[in-house]
Amino acid sequence: MSDDLDKSGRDGENLPAADPIADPGLPEHQWRPTDVDPAQERRAERQVTGMFLTAALLFVLFVVAYFAVEVDAIIFDYSASNIALGVTLGGGLLLIGMGIIQWAKKLMADHEMVEMRHPAASSKEDREAVMKDINAGIEESTLGRRPMIRNSLLLSLGALAAPSVVLLRDLGPLPYDQESTVWEPGMRVVNDVSGLPIRPSEIEVGQLVNAQPAIFFPQDGEEEAEISGHSQLAPKAKAAVIVVRMRPEDITPEAGKENWGIDGILCFSKICTHVGCPISLWERQTHHLLCPCHQSTYDLADNGKVIFGPAHRPLPQLPLMLDSEGYLVAQSDFLDIQGPSYPEIARHQEKLDSES
Fold first, then answer.
1. Interval 101-135: pLDDT, tens
2. Does pLDDT of 246 surpass 70?
3. Helix%, strand%, coil% for the chain, nearest 5
4. pLDDT tens, 151-189?
C-alpha cells in the first residue's frame, strides 16, 4: 500500500517544497488475514497453486484438442475445434492472470511507503479561468434554453450508430446463399482482360487462362448486364474462373465428371475455399494450383483436391462443352458452393450432395 504526500498547498496552490513529515497522520496499518492467520495463508497459497496447475492442464488439453478434435466437427452450430481451442487457451491465460492477482493481493509483502512528489494539479487561478471559459461557451451556445436543439442533437448522435451496422454488414457476403453464380448453360467462357471467347486450339498444354462469363463483356450494340439490380463487382468476383490444359492421360476425373472437360481443358473456380482469396499460381509440371494467401494447394488433375494447406474443400469445377461455333461454354452453373469454408457452407454442401 502506497500513500503520496503532495508538496502543494490547499486547493493545489504551488508552494515551496516542504521537508518530509515524520507523522503524516496515516491510519493504523490493517493487516491482511493471510498476514496474521497461517491457515488463511496456506489456503491462499493452495488457491494460487491450483490456478497455475489448472492453467498448465488446459494448455496440455489445447495441444490434445488441436490434434484430436476434427476441424469439421460441429457443436451447437459452431466449430467444435474453435470452441475447444478457444476455451483451453483462453481459460489457461485467464487462470494465470487470476493467480498472479491473488498472489500479489494475499501473499506478497505488504508494507506502507511514503513518497514525496511534485504537485500535479494546476493552480487555483488556472482552474478558475478554464471553468470560466467552459461556462461562457455553454451560455453562448444557449443549449440549456433550447431543449429542442439539444434533444435533436442527442437523437442524431444516437442514430449515428445505424450506419456502422450497414458498414459492418458490407464488409463481405454472409457465409450462405453462395450456391449459385451467373453461369448458365451455354454461356461462353471469355478472357477476363479482352473479353474474347476462347477456342480449345488457343490454349496450349500447361497454359492457364484467367476467365469470366461472357455476360460481363457485352458485344457491340449490347447493353451492359444488370445482375439483380446490384453492382457487378460481387457477382463478377464470385464467377471468376481459371481455364487450364493438361494432357488427357494425366487427368483422373471423378465419376460423373468424365465429360466436364474438352481435350484436357478444365475450368475451376478462382476463389480459394479457405478464406476466399483469388488464386492463379499454376505449377504446370505438377498440375498444382497454389493460393498465395495461406498456401492452400489444389491438384487440378485430381478434381481440384486439396493436397496441402488449411483449405478443406476441393476447388469447385465448372463443367465445359463446346457451342456450335467451337467456343468453350458452360454446361451449367457450379454444382458445388463457392466461397470460404465456413461451417454453414460445409453443412449446406453436405445437404446438396445428399439431395443430388
1. 989 888 888 777 767 777 778 888 999 999 999 88
2. yes
3. 40, 20, 45
4. 777 787 777 777 777 667 666 555 545 567 889 999 999
Query: 303's torsion region: left (phi>0), alpha (psi -120 to 50) or beta?
Result: left
Yes or no: is domain 189-219+236-355 CATH 2.102.10.10?
A: yes
Residue 214 near residue 327, CB atoms below 8 Å: no
Which residues make beta-bridge pairs with 28? none
Q: How far apart are CA 163 and CA 161, in angstroms?
A: 6
Give per-residue pLDDT as tens, 326-351. 999 999 998 887 777 665 555 555 66
Cα atoms in the Cβ-side hemisphere of radius 13 Å centred on 334: 24
Global pTM value: 0.51
From CA 69, how far away is CA 272, in angstroms rounded? Answer: 24
- Least confident window among 12-26, 36-50, 271-285: 12-26
Identify the three-state secondary structure at position 43: helix
Could you tell me how far CA 90 lies from the centroid of its own chain?
18
Q: φ, ψ for residue 244 (rounded to 5)?
A: -125, 155
Set of cell numbers at residue 222: 449490347
Q: How far apart are CA 96 and CA 111, in angstroms?
A: 25
For 11, the grid coordinates are: 486547493
Gap between the Cα atoms of 102 and 34, Å rounded: 11
The neighbouring-strand residues paired with 282 are: 289
What distance in Å separates the CA atoms of residue 171 and residue 22, rounded to the nearest whole number?
64
Q: How many CB atoms lie within 10 A of CB 65?
A: 19
Identify the CA nearest to 179 among candidates 266, 237, 238: 238
Count the residues in the chain: 356
**Packing angle between helix 161-169 and helix 147-159, nearest 10 degrees?**
10
Q: For residue 138, which of 148, 128, 150 has the smallest C-alpha distance?
A: 150
